[in-house]
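anyone seen this seq b4? input:
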Amino acid sequence: MASGDRSTIIKFLYLLLEKNRSSPYKQKVLGFIFYFCFWKVTEERDILYYLFMKFIIMKKYLLLLRNKISFFLLTYLTALVVIALGISILDNIKEFPEFSIQSTPPNSDTSVTPLPSSAEENLPLLPPVASQKQFNSEEEYKQFSQTSNTPPKVETYLGHFPYSENKQENLVKVADFYGREEFLDKTAANAFNRMKSDAKTSGVDITIISGFRSIAQQKKLFLKQINKRGGKEAAARFSAPPGYSEHHTGYALDIGEGQNIDTYIKFEFEYTEAYLWLVKNAHKYGFELSFPKNNLQGVSYEPWHWRFVGSQKAQDIFRMARMKQ
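predicted toks r here
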């Protein structure tokens, strides 16, 4: 067979192969035809047939390999995207001890139900002592002040002092925090609003994360801490037992820096401009840090937790706690 004829046949067979590449059976038939087209030239025939069949097989496996590589790369890229999204979500999910429980608006039910058995035992709620009593009017408070100069002995529970709930009529709304209304005692609210306004004038944005909190709400938070920390003693270092939180008084609040949610209820808050401004200026408005480092109550350092002591009434409420500092 002439070289030109062989070349023509090879091109023709290649075109047929391309046209029928999806059918392995047709490819094999073409292979046999190719083989017998060169039956007169044994050496050349065998070589060409070998190369032809190799081409068919290699093309098949290359296609399979391409599909596998494409699938692997797609799976790998998808996994990377999912992992990146997961990390981003986890970084933005902040576990705020004071963040997940809705504040109690005025006139809402703050009754306390017995704790579940998972709390190991019922948490004792001491009756309010005279120095922590809430008053309906300034006249009532002045009358009390004239008849009581020495606060009675106060029993603590897990390092925390007992506090009774402020009356709903004494609370006013100071802000909305992510759709949740926050309340403080009127006196503390006025002082906080002045402080917030002056801080903004200085270029610092301070926001209230949590204000007044009922005993019922504190119970939920404390049980959450028990489940997380493994016991009441460990939980009490990070959250007060129900009936022992300064938030009950309406004079305590958790403060954050604007929209800097990465520092909300975190130790990193002490490195923010808001915290540095508070350290220098909060006392001018009657606020002080409740739990500084190495406090005698044994409560974990909380740079975000501040209390109002700018009135005689507030000072009496926190008198025993302040002596522990």
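Confidence is low (pLDDT under 50) at residues 93-133. The first strand starts at residue 171 and ends at 177. kinda curious what u guys think
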